[in-house]
TrEMBL record:
Native source species: Flavobacterium cheniae
YchJ-like middle NTF2-like domain span: 28-121
Gene3D superfamilies named among the record's database cross-references: 3.10.450.50
Protein's name according to its UniProt entry: SEC-C motif-containing protein
Highest taxon above the source species: Bacteria
């Protein structure tokens, strides 16, 4: 694969993987969102749970996240807009029936103790 799952031209190992492995913290909301997309693409459910804001974690079951990430084939991420605390994006994927899908979301993020967290999104 050339480039990272998140759409950046650099490799996954040099882009999102250090965030997913906990080696580095995402410096911006957009970088966190991109790394979360890569986590869906690679089935890194722990990272998805750990980067969800603590106030919202009860709504995100690790088993369900893992099942959803593995049931789909993740094709492409398109970031449409981002501010310091929000990211609007489209995630393209094939569902379990190999039907093309687009997940459109305006996500909100929060910086706490030097770490970014996903709070919620409007679909």
């Amino acid at each position: 694969m050339s480039g990272c799952y998140c759409g950046n031209s650099i490799s996954f190992q040099d882009c999102c993987e250090p965030y997913i492995k906990g080696i580095k913290n995402a410096p911006t909301a957009e970088v966190l969102m991109r790394s979360r997309y890569s986590a869906f693409a690679t089935g890194a459910a722990d990272y998805l749970v750990n980067t969800t804001h603590i106030s919202k974690r009860r709504f995100h079951n690790k088993r369900d996240i893992l099942a959803w990430s593995q049931a789909n084939k993740w094709l492409k991420l398109e970031v449409l807009a981002s501010t310091e605390t929000t990211v609007t994006f489209k995630a393209y994927y094939l569902d379990q029936n190999l039907k093309a899908q687009v997940h459109y979301e305006h996500s909100t993020f929060k910086l706490e103790n030097g770490k970014w967290f996903y709070v919620d999104g409007e679909y």
